Structures
1.
Amino acid sequence: MWKRVASLSPLISSKRSSTLNQAAYTFKRFESFTTETPAQGKVGMFFKGKTPFITFVLGGPGSGKGTQCEKIVENFGFTHLSAGDLLRREITSNTEDGAKILDTIKEGKIVHSEVTVKLIRKEIDSSDNYKFLIDGFPRSEENRIEFERITEAEPDIVLFFDCPEEEMVKRVLNRNQGRVDDNIDTIRKRLKTFESLNLPVVNYYSKRGKLYTINAVGTADEIFEQVRPVFAAHEELST
Ligand SMILES: Nc1ncnc2c1ncn2[C@@H]1O[C@H](COP(=O)(O)OP(=O)(O)OP(=O)(O)O)[C@@H](O)[C@H]1O
Ligand SMILES: Nc1ccn([C@H]2C[C@H](O)[C@@H](COP(=O)(O)O)O2)c(=O)n1
Ligand SMILES: [Mg+2]
């Protein structure tokens, strides 16, 4: 069954580390089509016949992705899949893959896309939910392309938490969760990786009109007040 849906069109902030215009969300209805029962094939099998709602959550290390995802889960019933958490879980499995992942993470580099996409896909496959926040993914164009190849799906929206570097460094150094990559040497490397590999992905989704840039400076509650309308509007439009 085909149904017409309306969608939000984000007003995109192109400035780095900018202060987001608080009125950054304009309703601009445009026509798109979706299906509640996807045709047989990878997408249908992958999502068990339900139309998925996929949000990619991007931002530098310590920009507050995980913190905001928790709030989105509480308020809008999404399932939170953190690519970093899935990889860290793999490290504890003591497999050969796990050892390689640990080395990559310590170096502030990106794990091979096939590994990460397989872990994400497995979580989606085993979930009863159809609304997903995929946090810290895609971290590179290679990640993005591999996700599209394996799932034949694209995100509905992409959040980008825009945060100045000095604030990200401060937050990560204060995090105190015992992460092997929360030290100043690895943080510097992660920031370089973010700049060179993740920002092209941000620009890609900006050009496709899917990006919501959030000013990630302020308290977590203040930031969530920018995030809330994005999801509230989508809920309203899909009912
Ligand atoms: N708005 C905020 N103001 C101050 N501290 C914050 C804010 N949001 C999150 N934090 C804190 O900053 C640290 C990093 O936040 P969080 O783990 O959510 O970031 P992240 O983007 O998921 O980072 P990473 O990419 O490294 O996983 C945490 O200790 C968190 O409690
Ligand atoms: N798509 C991804 C996501 C994460 N990683 C690795 C490299 C990151 O520095 C590390 C921690 O991720 P975070 O918890 O900060 O989101 O995990 C990756 O290789 N690919
Ligand atoms: Mg995180």
2.
Amino acid sequence: MITSLTDTERTTALPALGETGWRALPDRDAIRKIWKFRSFSEAWGFMSRVALAAEKADHHPEWLNIYNVVDVTLTTHACNGLSALDLALARKMDKLAGAASVQVDHSEPVACLCQIKHGEIKHGGA
Ligand SMILES: C[C@H](O)[C@H](O)[C@H]1CNC2=NC(N)=NC(=O)C2=N1
């Protein structure tokens, strides 16, 4: 049976993930990270590799892809909160993403390369 993380497990594990750009969601027991790749092809390649890892672990992200952006939320539906499976998948995704840039400020709009190129959003984020 999958159980959500204890407070001790959270204080032990989450700071290190925070260092790489994972942020707690304000309204869900979940963590979120926003990657910006150099192209759609790189973003999709990342998602393909993560998809294989997710299938192997039988643990899947909630994610949105907009062109070069992959906006990921991890939580465990079976326990409606963060579990050890989310920590493992977060670490795996960090490895698979390599040197892709990360938007660490989630209060900023998430701009994809199209919007920046077309001048819709001033490129201030990572
Ligand atoms: C039937 C299948 O094993 C379950 O639905 C798995 C699939 N992937 C999952 N992914 C996530 N994030 N949470 C789950 O509870 C979950 N359950």
